[in-house]
Amino acid sequence: MRYMATYDLMETIRNTNQWLGASALAMGSYPAFSLIPNPAFAWMTAWGEVTERTFQRMIVKPDWNIPPVPSLDAQDHLVSTEVVVEKDFGDLLHFVVADRPVPKRKVLLVAPMSGHYSTLLRSTVISLLPDADLYITDWHNARDIPVSAGKFDIEDYTLYLVDFLRELGPDTHVIAVCQPAPLALAATAYLAEEDPSAQPRSLTLIGGPVDPDATPTDVTDFGRRVTMGQLEEMMIQRVGFKYPGVGRMVYPGLLQLSSFISMNGETHSKAFMNQITRVAQGDAEEHDKHNRFYDEYLAVMDMTAEFYLSTVERIFKNLEIAKNEFVVAGKKVDLGKITTVAVKTVEGSKDDISAPGQCVAALDLCTGLPDDKKASHLEDGAGHYGIFAGKSWRRNIRPLVLDFIDANSGDGKPTSKTKRAANKNAAA
């Protein structure tokens, strides 16, 4: 598997399917065929349209497309992005809301590097922008990074977070979603010892594998069953000649996507068959629910081989974070050194990726943190995606996270939650 030919073969298959879809769409759209009363041409056109779009999206980084932010001045403020810190493997991105007073809440949203672009958190960004001065980690596709840029593993990822937090300053509140939860915890502990003045005020960990063994899932079971040698042989390929990162060892996005889809193959097959039917019957739209979801879901990025392998070995197999044995740049990171940063965990009761128990384990690891600086929330009925981007996030979790941020903002002002409690006590 570890050859350029394998990588280029996967890209060739993708490109061929895109071409077949485009050809079917063009052929089925000939005006002459409309004279033939045969529904086969409508179905061929529909299949071509859906197929071309599907395989074309796999190599496209989605746009942020953030809508204007409404405010109390009855105006809609346009949103643009600005790179604050530029690095080889990822940038610190700032969402700039034009002509709006800067909100007091400064939030760093740490996006996962798990096969999708940071735009996977687009709906999360949209929901937070009205109430926060928002930054995000924008990770780059490994296939576009030249070999001369060097390696990038979980230690480098952690040090990137350290640099970003130093840039933003101590009035920052961090929200880490899924994969980066244990590494955001480690970065905070690293700063607690090396640069205490750069620590964030609060850290919210959403559905992350801090202790994967706390509640086993299919993901953790896979990590246990497969040896590192097998993973390297089966999953790692060398970037082909088409991209700037030619020769770099990666876990390809297309290979990751095949794994994602195989986990729920029947559901995805049904979704695409239904979409083809809607297109053939003229009921589909450019921005319908199917296209909105799959335009993002199918857009995958390569991970560096060392990042993927070190994540599996050190986070899932050796449990270095769960055992408080994580080492960064030759220095052991002690999670017990976190004494001032408030930590909150959020989990979903139906999360089959990071099951309940894996994330809340972070609170027990923060042995130096007083109980009044710890909080947790288990969202009943919510799956993995729902706790940061779905209905559960919008209705229940987001308000709780903002309350937690306000309660630990350090400005001494009562939060909305505190006010409600005070009013309730006064009434009693």
UniProtKB/TrEMBL annotation:
<dbReference type="InterPro" id="IPR010915">
    <property type="entry name" value="PHB_depoly_PhaZ"/>
</dbReference>
<dbReference type="InterPro" id="IPR029058">
    <property type="entry name" value="AB_hydrolase_fold"/>
</dbReference>
<dbReference type="InterPro" id="IPR051321">
    <property type="entry name" value="PHA/PHB_synthase"/>
</dbReference>
<protein>
    <submittedName>
        <fullName>PHB depolymerase</fullName>
    </submittedName>
</protein>
<dbReference type="InterPro" id="IPR009656">
    <property type="entry name" value="PHB_depo_C"/>
</dbReference>
<feature type="domain" description="PHB de-polymerase C-terminal">
    <location>
        <begin position="207"/>
        <end position="408"/>
    </location>
</feature>
<dbReference type="Pfam" id="PF06850">
    <property type="entry name" value="PHB_depo_C"/>
</dbReference>
